[in-house]
Amino acid sequence: MFDERTLHPEVEAVRDAHAPDALVLDATKDFEALPEPALDELALRTDALDPADYDPDWVPDEGPAFLDRLATRELTIGAPGDGSVAWTTQTTPPVILVKPRVQGSPEGFVAFLVAEALVEAGAGLPEHFLGFFREQYPDFADAVPGDATDTYQLAAACLDAYRGLHTRDVFESWAAESDYPVLAEAWRDAGERVQPRLDGLAREVARGSTGFSDAAELACSGVKHGLDVPTPFGALDSIAYRNHGAAYAVRWAAKLFEND
């Protein structure tokens, strides 16, 4: 199911700097979570497997079925919402997986997605929001109105913002250096495409034309690019969130929805 990916020279340099041992593989089939045969193949390509230890007590009673699967000692790589590139540090070395859905996307943008995954994996950031919130996830879920799917999407967006607070200095440095022109341009272009969608986001949420979780997903992507993020999501673009992580996100959600 996997082929070793030929990397753009700038991505090679990012790997050397941030995750020098990482494997970057093309998946031959799209996936959310890898099926068992793919996990067996991945085991043959890596030196060791160390499944993440997600406690079943972290999963609310009405959580999506995927969270029940995640909260076991079985190796689970990939999750709904991962996008076109997934990564894992449950293997030694870490693995970056590029899905076939990237076909047709601009080469520079795909290079950026792979480089971004290398930076995140190398920084030791949480692979899934369940590993980010941990025992605080039931409190987060209790604070958020709506169904379990909306809560899942909002939690994933919060993790995206948290990761962005830890990585965007790296992306900004690419724009300031001459060594990464393709990656810097791809990062700038992605941000320029997101900003116009953020400008009217608060009004769209107020009118009900955009759901809150969908808006959060977009806004938290804006945090990664250091954009002007509207209220109430701008509160996630803060040093306090970077430093306090899940506890801050739980307090943010509880305050935001306290009158709902």
Throw out a few tags for this protein.
two-stranded antiparallel ribbon, 260 residues, four-stranded mixed sheet, globular, 53% helix, single chain, alpha+beta, 12 helices
Structural commentary:
Pfam families: DUF7089 (PF23363). With 260 residues, the chain is of the alpha+beta class. The chain has one domain (2-256). It is 53% helix and 8% strand. The strands form two sheets. Strands 1-2-6-4 form a four-stranded mixed sheet, with helices on both faces. The protein has a two-stranded antiparallel ribbon with strand order 3-5. The chain is globular, with a radius of gyration of 18 Å. The model has no long low-confidence stretch (mean pLDDT 95).
List the helices and strands and how they pair.
Layout: E1 2-4, H1 9-18, E2 23-27, H2 36-45, E3 48-49, H3 65-70, E4 85-88, E5 91-92, E6 95-98, H4 107-122, H5 129-133, H6 137-143, H7 148-176, H8 181-199, H9 201-207, H10 212-224, H11 239-244, H12 246-256
Parallel strand pairs: 2-6
Antiparallel strand pairs: 1-2, 3-5, 4-6
Helix pairs in contact: 1-4, 4-8, 6-12, 7-8, 7-10, 8-10
Oligomer: single chain
Cα radius of gyration in angstroms = 18 Å
Sheet with most strands: strand arrangement: 1-2-6-4
Number of helices: 12
- Overall domain count: 1
Secondary-structure content class: alpha+beta
Low-confidence stretches: none
User: Span from first to last CA?
Assistant: 46 Å
Number of DSSP strand runs: 6
Note the overall shape: globular
InterPro entries: DUF7089
Pfam families: DUF7089
